[in-house]
Design brief:
- The complex is a heterodimer of chains A (about 700) and B (about 550).
- With about 700 residues, chain A is α/β, with parallel strands linked by helices.
- In chain B, strand 4 and strand 5 (about 125-135) form a beta hairpin.
- Chain B is an alpha+beta fold and about 550 residues long.
- Chain B has helices at about 5-35, 40-45, 75-85, 170-180, 185-210, 215-235, 290-300, 310-315, 340, 345-355, 380-385, 420-430, 535-540, 545-550, and strands spanning about 50-55, 60, 95-100, 110-120, 125-135, 160-165, 165-170, 240-250, 255-265, 270, 315-320, 370-375, 390-395, 430-440, 455-460, 465-470, 490-495, 505-510, 515-520.
- Chain B is globular, with a radius of gyration of 24 Å.
- Chain B has two domains: about 5-225, no CATH class; about 360-560, no CATH class.
- Classes of the chains: A alpha/beta (about 700), B alpha+beta (about 550).
- Chains A and B meet through helix 3, helix 11 and helix 12 of A and helix 1, helix 5, helix 6, helix 7 and helix 12 of B.
Amino acid sequence: MTRTASTARLAVDIGGTFTDVVLQARGQQWTTKVLTTPTAPEVGLLDAMNVILIEAGMTTTELDLLILGTTLATNALIERKGAKTALITTAGFRDIVEIGWEHRFAQYDIFLDKPAPLVPRNLRFGMAERINVSGKVLLPLDEAAVIKLAGDLLHEGIESVAVAFLQSYANPAHERRVRELLTLHAPKLWVTLSSDVCPEVREYERTSTACANAYVQPVMAGYLQRLETKLRDLGVRCPVYLMTSGGALTTMAIGAAEPVRLVESGPAGGAILSRTVAQQCGVDRALSFDMGGTTAKICFIDDYEPQLSRNFEFGRMYRFLKGSGLPIRIPVIEMVEIGAGGGSIARIDSMKRVQVGPDSAGSEPGPACYARGGTHATVTDADCVMGYLDTERFAGGRVKLDAKRAGAAVTSDIAKPLGLDTDLGALAINEIVTENMANAARVHAMELGKTVEKYTLIAFGGAAPLHAARLATKLGISRVIIPLSASVGSALGFLTAPVAFQAVRSWHAVLNALDTQHANALLDEMQQQATDMVRAGAANEPLQTARVAYMRYQGQGHEIPVTLPAGKLAARDAATLTARFAKAYHAMYGRAIPNLGVEIMSWSVTVSTKIKPAKLAQRISKHVAARASASRRVFEATQGKSRDAKIYERAQLVPGSVIKGPALVAEDQTTIVVTADFSLKINSLGYAVLDQHKGKQQ
Amino acid sequence: MSKKSNRDALAEIQMQVMWNRLISVVEEQAQTLIRTAFGAATREAGDLSAGVFLPDGRMVAQAVTGTPGHVNSMAESVGHFLTEYPARSMQPGDTYVTNDPWKGTGHLNDFTMVTPVFLGAGKRLVALFASTVHVVDIGGLGFGPDGTQVYHEGLFVPILKLVDAGKFSQTVLKIIRANVREPVQVEGDLYALVACNEVGGRRLNAMMAEYRLKDIEALGEFIIARSNAAMLAAVREWPQGTWSTTMTIDGYGSPITLAAKLTISRSGIDIDFSGTSPVVAKGINVPKSYTDAYTSFGVRCIIGANIPNNEGSLSVVRVTAPEGCILNAPFPLAVAARSTVGQMLPDVVFGCLRQARADKVPAEGTSCLWNIRLAGGQGAGAMLKAKRFTVVGFNTGGTGARPAKDGLSVTSFPSGVRNVSLEIMETISPLVFWRKEYRPDSGGAGSARGGLGQVIEIENGDNAPMVLAATFDRIHHPARGADGGKAGSGGRVRLHSGTELNGMGNQVVPAGDRLIVETPGGGGIGDPRERSREAVAQDVKYGLVSGDQARVLYGFKE
């Protein structure tokens, strides 16, 4: 498989509402959106494939590559529509998965509810066994009890089982023995071992990950199998890949074995798109900004690598608060998600402050201006009042906006209680929602030790182009890039993702007494595992490896990733690692701490195919004066008053077209707002590049 | 409201945006501290605070972190710093420090630092940033209630200048290092405090540059006035009057009665702890600053919960306690384990508020943390031969039932701590855990049930003795139910071999034996016989309530 411009590549992102499809072939690109068919997602998928292939005049047999992303796993978790699942734990610890962190994620809310575990208490079973932190057996596994349980599970109608024993990452023998026994005595059960899906220290997170995998596995495996059969029946001969939460591709077989890795693949695709755009435009410090109807997602991309992490919480519905969801530890692209989207509802609180979100009017009833029964003022209503939106063309003309209703909602919910004009009420909503996003970006930058002012904003998703320039100004960012086809950003991103697998293990080691022999054996084993996984989908493509140790000062609570030197570790590498850790620590926290021991908690090895160089943006020296198609009264945020802004058609702009703000650039799915402090220029790839005028802030 | 002029309107919007920004600044400050601090209490449990103050010492924003113990104790603390070092004497690069329990946050383990922030590179003082962190050790007897004077509890650092125009006082650092058991970690925490205040200062300066502000006086007044008005409005939704209550807890050796009289008036809420038991000879006494913190927190959970902490909102709740009662312990009494009694105060506040509006107030819960502190290899004889370790596990019992909602099982309240992973504790010590699970039947029966406690069983895997430093309450005086609801189960501490242990003080767990800790349950609300039958059936199915208890207390027939 070689991925050149002449190959035909199709990517499908099955989202909650829409299924997005992108086809690239013969140097051309086709995109489309169809409604997702939640009960049988493969139906919508096959429909969409059909539509786009007909449009391109191609057949399924001509495809060279097919990539799928799906929210099915995420939805099964959030909507609790997974399999009937049981959990087997070490005796005495079956409540670990419900006790969780023992805290309240909202300090002042005494009425809060904690997320219910995926497996209820009557289906959680403790088995006598115990392995200690060094992997030594303290209490042998009670095999007779496991065999008896196998019968009980079948009797209970259990489809899937998670097994999570204490310290199983150090020695998985007991978990593996349980799988053998279950396979023998209840062969129809799906079995997930915590030491397979998450061989990492911290029992709650590991158990929760195993439960999530077990819970979605029957659904996902069944779906993937049906899908594969149908695709083959339809004549698809090419390799089929799945997008993972870590922004990498994997095979159908691995997807079915560890479906928990498929959670959140859509947002990961968006971040991968940003990476590609960053590469094309030579932006080595990119801030990916994806704003849709309900949430905004922010992700830092340094040196063309999105920030990765191994912590994710699903179903964090409680004001998006950390700790209000259930944890899964898988490789994920690190993002902050906040309740700030077009549908976010604005209100006045008891301190007469405008608050926006995190609740959203969604698509039903939607913002007031949709005229579908929504009466609350939303961000989209504010955008409408400020003149940013073309009422006839919103969402490709599918939704006709009612500016009057928008004005009425903004007036009654915000402007009147504050004694403001409607325009200023809309401005307040816009300023607060943008400030919320800016604050989220600032705090996230702080968590990661980054300086946000040095970044370029890459904006996509329906609502992002409306707010990107203002957000940039607030963050002290002077350049914004808005790619083409931004509304199918995730599917576009899939097309440039590598095939990769991350193996991870916890093994505690103190650096000044590092057992390099053990470390090398562990790393070799992980390298082998990851390589096997990638080879299954990458044939003979050249591979690259990244090895990371998760290190901390002895006694600290957070580990930071440090890249290991290439090749076998030798005794002298301990000094190299200490120095690398100190440097990374200094970069994050401003100072290193002398005389304190350093320890490694976990290790990871990521093997991936090399990313194909993207088509680079060329320098354009010519300036083409753009012709406005109309003009409209627009409320200018930076100046706090209305003025006429010219409106341009994005389809009519060509590389080199220049537009000075304030102006609006209309496309079928969205509008780019060029505030008064920015100018827009179309680059050689057709992307809109907004630059702030020098020396002009605010 | 009448229409504002365009200029006023824009100013109003800008004030609101800057208020949001200021809260983000203190969140960044707190985040820096969480990620750089060493003590498990800070990083896992969020036992820290961070805030920004006007130059006159009034707090304008505080980060929302895990412990209410610093809610307004840190705010008060800044006033003490200003008395010692007037604002005009401060210069860029200075940072001041103390762990004075009476001028800080209640015990020697808490260090508070204050850093003045100047406009740009100039000399104009625009704000003070303060932060507090709990360090792992401060010398003395080691953490626990066994001291009888503050002198036993470790090194006392009065308010002094730690960093002078950017230069750390090596003298102070040397003295601190020489007096604590974990010098590197403690010093690391002190650096973390300085660093987080610096981050706050930088962020504030960036914001002021962006909005071209010369000071934050106008913004501060705006925040304080808005918060004050909102807090008063929240108070005025409640009936006016005075309500009294008492609650008795185990204490150290002899019971302690906490008495309170709470008055709601148009001008705010006054709580008077007259009638409360006197101070004791052990380290469970509470300095007034800490009493203020947990009392206000209790009120704020029920009234004005969504209003941010600052001078405007905090000044609406006023607390008095006669000097010499256990809630206003004077220097030099022992105060190290003040949290056990202090954390009970929200329940006392609830006892009063429940009489005003029962539909808004939960029943009593475990309230105090049941932190399991174990140490090995320290002391004399056989102990000394064993591997040395000190470990703290943050553990909790059940919370009280809430009106029409069950209490939360095994959940921290009023503290907001997170626990520490068992596997991590087994990594850093020789401990082996044998059990950590719900304790059936421990939740107080009621139409709304109290939350359950848990059972934890621990062994020293090195087959050596270890010492438990206990600070547990609600063993003999469990959380009471309300409106016909039953009390939760009392807690219990014992050895696997059968010996019952005390709730307070250092006690040995012999080699080969196991420690078993059962945490208390929360109280129930309403007659258990009125609990929905589906809820009782589910509790039985899940094994949270036994068949016996379901029959006897809930009148449940299958």
